[in-house]
Protein backbone atom coordinates (compact mmCIF):
# COMPACT_ATOMS: atom_id res chain seq x y z
CA UNK A 1 0.00 0.00 0.00
CA UNK A 2 1.34 3.41 -0.94
CA UNK A 3 2.17 6.26 1.38
CA UNK A 4 -0.76 8.54 2.09
CA UNK A 5 -3.36 5.76 2.37
CA UNK A 6 -6.68 7.51 3.10
CA UNK A 7 -9.78 5.98 4.67
CA UNK A 8 -12.35 8.36 3.18
CA UNK A 9 -15.36 7.13 5.13
CA UNK A 10 -15.72 6.14 8.76
CA UNK A 11 -17.80 7.10 11.78
CA UNK A 12 -17.42 7.53 15.53
CA UNK A 13 -20.02 7.82 18.25
CA UNK A 14 -20.43 7.95 22.01
CA UNK A 15 -23.81 6.72 23.21
CA UNK A 16 -23.26 8.59 26.46
CA UNK A 17 -23.32 11.84 24.51
CA UNK A 18 -26.07 10.99 22.03
CA UNK A 19 -28.16 8.00 21.05
CA UNK A 20 -27.79 6.61 17.56
CA UNK A 21 -31.49 6.08 16.97
CA UNK A 22 -30.92 4.12 13.77
CA UNK A 23 -29.29 1.26 15.72
CA UNK A 24 -32.36 -0.87 16.30
CA UNK A 25 -33.09 -4.58 16.42
CA UNK A 26 -30.91 -7.58 17.21
CA UNK A 27 -29.07 -7.56 13.86
CA UNK A 28 -27.52 -4.21 14.65
CA UNK A 29 -26.78 -4.96 18.31
CA UNK A 30 -22.99 -5.23 17.72
CA UNK A 31 -23.08 -1.50 16.97
CA UNK A 32 -24.82 -0.54 20.23
CA UNK A 33 -21.68 0.54 22.05
CA UNK A 34 -19.21 3.40 21.84
CA UNK A 35 -16.82 3.52 18.89
CA UNK A 36 -14.11 6.11 19.37
CA UNK A 37 -11.08 7.38 17.52
CA UNK A 38 -8.94 5.50 20.03
CA UNK A 39 -10.69 2.30 18.93
CA UNK A 40 -10.05 3.07 15.27
CA UNK A 41 -6.44 4.15 15.58
CA UNK A 42 -4.79 0.70 16.00
CA UNK A 43 -6.95 -0.76 13.22
CA UNK A 44 -6.02 2.05 10.86
CA UNK A 45 -2.34 1.90 11.82
CA UNK A 46 -2.20 -1.85 11.22
CA UNK A 47 -3.68 -1.34 7.75
CA UNK A 48 -1.27 1.46 6.91
CA UNK A 49 -3.94 4.19 6.89
CA UNK A 50 -2.35 7.59 7.45
CA UNK A 51 -5.41 9.87 7.36
CA UNK A 52 -9.18 9.59 7.45
CA UNK A 53 -12.44 11.38 6.77
CA UNK A 54 -15.04 11.07 9.53
CA UNK A 55 -18.66 11.22 8.37
CA UNK A 56 -21.84 12.29 10.18
CA UNK A 57 -24.30 9.67 11.41
CA UNK A 58 -27.34 11.61 12.70
CA UNK A 59 -29.29 14.67 11.60
CA UNK A 60 -28.43 16.62 14.73
CA UNK A 61 -26.80 20.04 14.43
CA UNK A 62 -24.58 19.53 17.47
CA UNK A 63 -22.76 16.54 15.95
CA UNK A 64 -20.81 18.46 13.31
CA UNK A 65 -19.06 20.86 15.74
CA UNK A 66 -18.14 17.83 17.86
CA UNK A 67 -16.58 16.09 14.86
CA UNK A 68 -14.71 19.26 13.91
CA UNK A 69 -13.33 19.51 17.44
CA UNK A 70 -12.30 15.86 17.28
CA UNK A 71 -10.47 16.48 14.01
CA UNK A 72 -8.83 19.60 15.40
CA UNK A 73 -7.15 17.53 18.11
CA UNK A 74 -6.22 14.60 15.89
CA UNK A 75 -3.28 13.78 13.65
CA UNK A 76 -5.38 11.08 11.96
CA UNK A 77 -8.66 12.78 10.98
CA UNK A 78 -7.92 15.06 8.03
CA UNK A 79 -11.50 15.83 7.03
CA UNK A 80 -15.07 15.97 8.31
CA UNK A 81 -18.26 15.40 6.30
CA UNK A 82 -20.87 16.97 8.53
CA UNK A 83 -24.57 17.71 8.52
CA UNK A 84 -26.53 20.92 8.39
CA UNK A 85 -30.09 21.65 7.39
CA UNK A 86 -29.91 22.25 3.66
CA UNK A 87 -33.49 23.52 3.63
CA UNK A 88 -32.79 26.37 6.06
CA UNK A 89 -32.76 29.87 4.55
CA UNK A 90 -29.67 30.51 6.70
CA UNK A 91 -27.64 27.56 5.45
CA UNK A 92 -24.87 29.72 3.97
CA UNK A 93 -24.41 31.55 7.28
CA UNK A 94 -24.39 28.26 9.16
CA UNK A 95 -21.69 26.84 6.90
CA UNK A 96 -19.61 29.97 7.51
CA UNK A 97 -20.13 29.57 11.25
CA UNK A 98 -18.99 25.95 11.13
CA UNK A 99 -15.88 26.93 9.17
CA UNK A 100 -15.03 29.39 11.93
CA UNK A 101 -15.19 26.85 14.76
CA UNK A 102 -12.18 24.97 16.17
CA UNK A 103 -11.37 22.43 13.48
CA UNK A 104 -13.57 24.26 10.99
CA UNK A 105 -10.82 24.19 8.43
CA UNK A 106 -11.28 20.43 8.27
CA UNK A 107 -14.90 20.63 7.16
CA UNK A 108 -14.74 19.12 3.67
CA UNK A 109 -18.31 18.10 2.90
CA UNK A 110 -21.95 17.94 3.91
CA UNK A 111 -24.26 14.93 3.97
CA UNK A 112 -27.95 14.28 4.63
CA UNK A 113 -29.63 10.90 5.14
CA UNK A 114 -31.47 11.00 1.82
CA UNK A 115 -31.88 7.21 2.03
CA UNK A 116 -34.38 7.78 4.85
CA UNK A 117 -36.46 10.43 3.06
CA UNK A 118 -39.89 9.13 2.16
CA UNK A 119 -40.77 12.02 -0.12
CA UNK A 120 -39.88 11.20 -3.73
CA UNK A 121 -37.60 13.73 -5.34
CA UNK A 122 -36.29 15.20 -2.07
CA UNK A 123 -32.97 16.11 -3.70
CA UNK A 124 -34.78 18.08 -6.40
CA UNK A 125 -36.81 20.29 -4.06
CA UNK A 126 -36.18 24.02 -4.51
CA UNK A 127 -35.12 24.53 -0.90
CA UNK A 128 -32.71 21.59 -1.04
CA UNK A 129 -31.22 22.85 -4.29
CA UNK A 130 -30.70 26.28 -2.73
CA UNK A 131 -28.82 24.56 0.08
CA UNK A 132 -26.71 22.58 -2.38
CA UNK A 133 -25.78 25.86 -4.05
CA UNK A 134 -24.59 27.15 -0.68
CA UNK A 135 -22.49 24.00 -0.18
CA UNK A 136 -20.84 24.60 -3.55
CA UNK A 137 -20.24 28.29 -2.79
CA UNK A 138 -18.53 27.28 0.45
CA UNK A 139 -16.09 25.13 -1.52
CA UNK A 140 -17.38 21.88 -0.02
CA UNK A 141 -18.40 18.54 -1.55
CA UNK A 142 -21.77 16.88 -1.06
CA UNK A 143 -21.96 13.21 -0.02
CA UNK A 144 -24.91 11.23 -1.36
CA UNK A 145 -26.13 8.46 0.95
CA UNK A 146 -28.99 7.04 -1.07
CA UNK A 147 -30.79 3.84 -1.97
CA UNK A 148 -30.26 2.33 -5.39
CA UNK A 149 -33.75 3.44 -6.46
CA UNK A 150 -32.76 7.08 -5.77
CA UNK A 151 -29.79 7.10 -8.16
CA UNK A 152 -31.81 8.65 -10.99
CA UNK A 153 -32.58 11.65 -8.76
CA UNK A 154 -28.86 11.88 -7.97
CA UNK A 155 -28.05 12.12 -11.68
CA UNK A 156 -30.70 14.78 -12.22
CA UNK A 157 -29.53 16.99 -9.37
CA UNK A 158 -25.84 16.56 -10.27
CA UNK A 159 -26.64 17.72 -13.80
CA UNK A 160 -28.38 20.78 -12.37
CA UNK A 161 -25.39 21.64 -10.16
CA UNK A 162 -22.24 21.25 -12.27
CA UNK A 163 -20.42 23.56 -9.87
CA UNK A 164 -20.73 21.04 -7.01
CA UNK A 165 -18.87 17.74 -6.58
CA UNK A 166 -21.21 14.92 -5.59
CA UNK A 167 -19.66 11.95 -3.74
CA UNK A 168 -21.72 8.75 -3.95
CA UNK A 169 -21.39 6.75 -0.74
CA UNK A 170 -21.37 2.95 -0.68
CA UNK A 171 -21.76 2.51 -4.46
CA UNK A 172 -25.36 3.70 -4.16
CA UNK A 173 -26.23 0.60 -2.11
CA UNK A 174 -26.55 -2.07 -4.81
CA UNK A 175 -28.42 -5.31 -4.01
CA UNK A 176 -25.26 -7.38 -3.58
CA UNK A 177 -26.95 -10.02 -1.42
CA UNK A 178 -29.32 -10.86 -4.29
CA UNK A 179 -26.60 -10.90 -6.94
CA UNK A 180 -28.62 -8.59 -9.21
CA UNK A 181 -26.74 -5.92 -11.16
CA UNK A 182 -29.67 -4.23 -12.88
CA UNK A 183 -31.24 -1.72 -12.71
CA UNK A 184 -28.55 -0.45 -10.31
CA UNK A 185 -25.69 -0.67 -12.85
CA UNK A 186 -27.48 1.37 -15.52
CA UNK A 187 -28.49 4.04 -13.02
CA UNK A 188 -24.93 4.16 -11.68
CA UNK A 189 -23.50 4.61 -15.17
CA UNK A 190 -25.90 7.49 -15.83
CA UNK A 191 -24.60 9.22 -12.70
CA UNK A 192 -20.98 8.46 -13.58
CA UNK A 193 -21.47 10.08 -17.00
CA UNK A 194 -21.53 13.44 -15.20
CA UNK A 195 -17.99 14.77 -14.62
CA UNK A 196 -18.81 16.32 -11.23
CA UNK A 197 -19.48 12.93 -9.62
CA UNK A 198 -17.22 10.47 -7.81
CA UNK A 199 -17.91 7.21 -5.99
CA UNK A 200 -16.76 5.69 -2.71
CA UNK A 201 -15.70 2.07 -2.82
CA UNK A 202 -17.26 1.50 0.58
CA UNK A 203 -20.08 -0.31 2.31
CA UNK A 204 -20.02 -3.37 0.09
CA UNK A 205 -19.86 -6.05 2.79
CA UNK A 206 -22.98 -4.80 4.54
CA UNK A 207 -24.96 -4.85 1.28
CA UNK A 208 -23.91 -8.50 0.83
CA UNK A 209 -24.87 -11.55 2.89
CA UNK A 210 -23.22 -10.60 6.19
CA UNK A 211 -22.42 -14.17 7.18
CA UNK A 212 -21.51 -15.74 3.84
CA UNK A 213 -20.17 -13.08 1.44
CA UNK A 214 -17.09 -13.72 -0.65
CA UNK A 215 -14.87 -11.38 -2.63
CA UNK A 216 -16.33 -12.99 -5.74
CA UNK A 217 -19.77 -11.72 -4.67
CA UNK A 218 -18.46 -8.16 -4.37
CA UNK A 219 -16.19 -8.04 -7.40
CA UNK A 220 -18.85 -7.42 -10.13
CA UNK A 221 -20.11 -4.36 -8.26
CA UNK A 222 -16.65 -2.94 -7.64
CA UNK A 223 -15.67 -3.57 -11.25
CA UNK A 224 -18.84 -1.82 -12.47
CA UNK A 225 -17.93 1.24 -10.40
CA UNK A 226 -14.31 1.27 -11.58
CA UNK A 227 -15.37 0.88 -15.20
CA UNK A 228 -18.06 3.58 -14.97
CA UNK A 229 -16.13 6.23 -13.02
CA UNK A 230 -12.52 5.30 -13.70
CA UNK A 231 -10.02 4.91 -10.87
CA UNK A 232 -9.37 8.65 -10.81
CA UNK A 233 -12.93 9.22 -9.61
CA UNK A 234 -13.10 6.39 -7.07
CA UNK A 235 -12.05 6.63 -3.42
CA UNK A 236 -11.90 3.93 -0.77
CA UNK A 237 -13.62 4.03 2.61
CA UNK A 238 -13.94 1.42 5.34
CA UNK A 239 -17.40 2.40 6.64
CA UNK A 240 -16.07 1.45 10.08
CA UNK A 241 -17.63 0.61 12.48
CA UNK A 242 -20.73 -0.33 10.45
CA UNK A 243 -18.53 -2.80 8.56
CA UNK A 244 -18.06 -4.90 11.72
CA UNK A 245 -21.52 -6.33 11.10
CA UNK A 246 -19.96 -8.34 8.27
CA UNK A 247 -16.18 -7.93 8.45
CA UNK A 248 -13.25 -6.61 10.44
CA UNK A 249 -11.46 -3.40 9.45
CA UNK A 250 -8.61 -5.48 8.09
CA UNK A 251 -11.12 -7.55 6.17
CA UNK A 252 -12.54 -4.61 4.25
CA UNK A 253 -9.02 -3.38 3.51
CA UNK A 254 -8.28 -6.84 2.11
CA UNK A 255 -11.42 -6.73 -0.04
CA UNK A 256 -10.39 -3.39 -1.49
CA UNK A 257 -6.90 -4.60 -2.24
CA UNK A 258 -8.34 -7.64 -3.95
CA UNK A 259 -10.80 -5.85 -6.20
CA UNK A 260 -8.25 -3.28 -7.41
CA UNK A 261 -5.36 -5.72 -7.84
CA UNK A 262 -5.62 -5.55 -11.62
CA UNK A 263 -5.25 -1.76 -11.75
CA UNK A 264 -1.98 0.04 -12.41
CA UNK A 265 0.05 1.40 -9.50
CA UNK A 266 -1.10 4.93 -10.32
CA UNK A 267 -4.74 3.87 -10.40
CA UNK A 268 -4.42 2.11 -7.04
CA UNK A 269 -2.83 5.26 -5.60
CA UNK A 270 -5.86 7.25 -6.79
CA UNK A 271 -8.35 4.88 -5.15
CA UNK A 272 -6.43 4.69 -1.89
CA UNK A 273 -5.54 8.34 -1.52
CA UNK A 274 -5.25 10.60 -4.53
CA UNK A 275 -8.96 10.89 -5.31
CA UNK A 276 -9.88 11.59 -1.69
CA UNK A 277 -7.22 14.27 -1.39
CA UNK A 278 -8.44 15.95 -4.58
CA UNK A 279 -12.16 15.75 -3.89
CA UNK A 280 -12.00 16.78 -0.24
CA UNK A 281 -8.98 19.06 -0.39
CA UNK A 282 -7.05 16.98 2.12
CA UNK A 283 -3.38 17.69 2.81
CA UNK A 284 -0.97 16.05 0.37
CA UNK A 285 0.63 12.76 1.26
CA UNK A 286 3.76 13.06 3.38
Structural class: alpha/beta
The CATH topology corresponds to TIM Barrel
- Helix proportion of residues, in percent? 25-40%
Low-confidence stretches: none
- β-strand percent reads 5-15%
CATH C-level class: Alpha Beta
Output the strand order for the largest sheet: 1-2-3-4-5-6-7-8
**Gap from first CA to last CA:** 14 Å
CATH architecture term: Alpha-Beta Barrel
- Tell me the name of the CATH homologous superfamily: Metal-dependent hydrolases
Mean pLDDT: 96
3D architecture notes:
- The structure is a single chain.
- This protein has 286 residues and is α/β, with parallel strands linked by helices.
- The protein has one domain: Metal-dependent hydrolases (TIM Barrel, Alpha-Beta Barrel).
- It has nine helices and eight strands.
- The protein has helices at 37-47, 63-72, 91-99, 126-137, 151-160, 184-192, 215-229, 249-259, 265-280; strands at residues 5-10, 49-55, 77-82, 107-112, 141-144, 166-168, 197-201, 234-236.
- An eight-stranded parallel sheet has the order 1-2-3-4-5-6-7-8.
- Helix 4 (126-137) links the parallel strand 4 and strand 5 (141-144).
- Helix 5 packs parallel to helix 6 and helix 6 runs parallel beside helix 7 (215-229).
- The model has no long low-confidence stretch (mean pLDDT 96).
Question: What attributes does this structure have?
Answer:
8 strands, TIM Barrel, alpha/beta, 286 residues, globular, eight-stranded parallel sheet, 9 helices
Record the SSE blueprint:
Blueprint (H helix, E strand, L loop, with lengths): L4 E6 L26 H11 L1 E7 L7 H10 L4 E6 L8 H9 L7 E6 L13 H12 L3 E4 L6 H10 L5 E3 L15 H9 L4 E5 L13 H15 L4 E3 L12 H11 L5 H16 L6
Parallel strand pairs: 1-2, 2-3, 3-4, 4-5, 5-6, 6-7, 7-8
Helix pairs in contact: 5-6, 6-7
Amino acid sequence: MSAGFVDAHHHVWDLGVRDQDWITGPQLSPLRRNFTLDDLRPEASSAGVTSTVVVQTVTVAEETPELLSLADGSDLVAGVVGWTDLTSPGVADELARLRGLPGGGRLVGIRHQVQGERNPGWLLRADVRRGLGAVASAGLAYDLVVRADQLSDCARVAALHPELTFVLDHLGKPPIASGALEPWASALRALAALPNTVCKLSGMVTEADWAAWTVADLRPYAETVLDAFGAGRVLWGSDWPVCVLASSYGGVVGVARGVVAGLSAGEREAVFGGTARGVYGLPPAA
